[in-house]
Amino acid sequence: MTDGARETQVLDVVASFVDRLLVDFDTVDLLTELTERCTELLDVAAAGLLFADPFGKLSLLAATSEQARELELFQLQAHEGPCLESFGSGEPVSVADLHEAVRRWPTFVPAALDGGFASVHAVPMRAAGDAMGALGLFGVRPGALLDDDRLIAQTLAHIACVAILQGRAPTPSTIIPQLRTAFTSRVVVEQAKGFLREVLDVSTEDAFRVLRGYSHANGEHLTEVARRLMKDRHSRPTLVASILDYAARPER
After folding, report:
1. CB of 134 closer than 8 Å to CB of 121
2. Which residues form the ANTAR domain (predicted)?
3. 3-class DSSP state for residue 212?
4. Residue 126 and residue 118: Cα distance in Å, rounded?
5. pTM value?
């Protein structure tokens, strides 16, 4: 891809997110798409977003895959890794070859290598000068995060912050309600994924693809479909039948 073509691709992605932010949008769906765009624009195979509450506790909000989700959660459990380091320092982190970072992250590195990753990077999510989380990027082959790629990743991280804060200044009184809503939405979506995995007898990733695809095809928010699936027992049979019909369509 030429430099001009790549620049156009990046601008198209940024413009599409800005358009989304100006209308009613589903936070979990938008952040999931943002991580997916990272794999399209950058030399990485997976990405994930960790966001902190006003007390500094990080939680996972979105990831490209179950593999990325598990690695992000492992960072939180192990208390080490690129996202935690980037969040703590407020600076980008780039490790071109994980084999050289065993002393730096003795627990995280073996888990990442076992997951098939060879390089990891992270950029901080900032608002009003303060780090509020981190965007993690995971590559399956060694390689540094180049300056152009770091700038693109940082731009996407800023978009994620705007999506979560939705134009409000980052104070405890504004962040806590937004995070509570985002985390609650994420939990409901995770529950719906597990439910559909059993109903459809597919992997968790495929269940999530069906859930997102169905919500997009019907012009509904991902979180609202998940909520109806898990919380509304009266409409659940009809909704499940509709999702099964969607999942069986060869053109989807």
Report:
1. no
2. 169-230
3. helix
4. 27
5. 0.79
